[in-house]
Amino acid sequence: MSQTAIISGVHNTKVGEVPGSTCMSLHTEAALGALEDAGLKLSDIDGVICAYALSENYPMLSSAFCEYVGAEPNFNAGLHGGGATGAMMVMQAAALVKSGTCRHVLCVTGDNRLTGMTRDKAVAALTEFGHPQFEQPYGISIPAAYALVAQRYLHETGATLEHLAALSVSHRAHAAMHPDAHMTKPITMDDVANARVISSPLRLLDCCLISDGGAALVVSAGDTRADLKKRPVTVLGAGQGHTHEHIVAAPSLIDFGCRTASARAFAAAGVKTDDIDVAEIYDSFTITLLIELESIGFFEKGTAGEAALNGELTHGGRLPCNTHGGLLSFGHSGAAGGMFHVVEAVRQLRGEADTRQVADAELAFVHGDGGILSAHCSLILGRA
Amino acid sequence: MTGKPTPTPNADTSPFWEACNEDRLIVQTCRSCGHVQFYPRALCVKCESRDLNWRDAKPEGTVHSCTVVHRAPTPAFKEDAPYVLALIDLDDGFRMMMNVINCPPESVAIGMPVRIVFEDREGQKLPQAEPSANA
Ligand SMILES: [Zn+2]
Fold this sequence. Notes:
Structural class of chain A: alpha/beta
CATH architecture of the largest domain in chain B: Beta Barrel
Bound molecules: zinc ion
Number of helices of chain A: 12
Largest sheet of chain A: 9 strands, mixed
Number of strands of chain B: 8
Number of helices of chain B: 2
Strand content of chain A: 15-25%
Strand content of chain B: 35-45%
Oligomer: heterodimer
Shape of chain A: globular
Order of helices and strands of chain A: EHEHEHEHHHHEEEEHEHHHHEE
Order of helices and strands of chain B: HEEEEHEEEE
Largest sheet of chain B: 5 strands, antiparallel
């Protein structure tokens, strides 16, 4: 029988303002936590994948991390897929254990974007966003690029600002049930409506947070499960979809690579959208999630917003989504942002989500997107 | 001195930017399959041919999407806020990002016809859009 890939350990640090943290301390805390959760030691790890960080400049972050913790793995690589990185790491690590290249692959992310960025670094990061010749001269920002998507989506579907707001409100309520979340103070529909406009139609509460935080997980070969502390979670399917990097070159503003990424993951796992018990889907902005829910096929085009208003995306609804609070309220610290979604899916499948637990969650869908809905990676995870 | 970014032309793009400096909008086309592509590249993304050509583009188009940016990304754009960032579908079948200028930001809407004008930015002219109604 061919080798399966399982997620054997997960961990996230406290998220939000984490005083005294550094990029490397967050990486280390997340990594050691995931190892502890798996019942493994650093010396058991033979593969390491890291992402990128803005607060400390390492051209080879994954090598810098291995050096910092004293690891000398057989396989070591950096992965840059923006918000899709967390899911992509799992897909890559699963391929490594399935091929027999590695037994235990440690995937680590972390950044202290809230307290660790000097003003110069923050401005430089913003200045570098967008196509240098055909977007940057026009004053593009990340919210403005997503606002262009939102404006077109609202125009074509008739969805409303209330639909977007319903997502902000449900995410905050979910974060309030998580002990590590960045923002837990409840918000109302009026709070979202009255928040200042960043780039029309997106208001402050339509936008993700900026947080310090880290997250890590271990992907292991299926035949190591007897050595592991907890019941593992199986990576049943994974898929990617890529259409562009810059929004000026996107083939559509209302349909994106999440359609192909998820179709590939569902096909690999042999399951359908209706089979999914809980979904953890990238939510850099409220509009991101709304479009992805529809492109992936959980809802018909133009109907996800109404579903959000009707409570379909929370506990007891048709598709409990972002049960940790997502990037909108749990927190967003660079590549760790997308990793938080994976960590939460694993906890849901293990039945470890306390008051956030979705009853009898057996099958989870995870999706990350990087850039402006540019790079997509979907995962189907199941109780082993 | 605006401090706003100016494009740095390279081998792929210098004919485009040189034409802008003559107040002309040009676009890259494929000699093999006829595909019109923006931005300019070293190959045709439709047929993989490297046999590419330039031709004049009609300096008119339509707003495909637009946003009023209230929070400028960098200090250089602070003075302009609120300003309109838009994706413009040119009549000749390609899409560009521009600002829609010379009109109140809130008057810009999806579907609005625009014409291309050129803004001088530190010696390099930049295509911009203004409402066709301004003409
Ligand atoms: Zn061609």
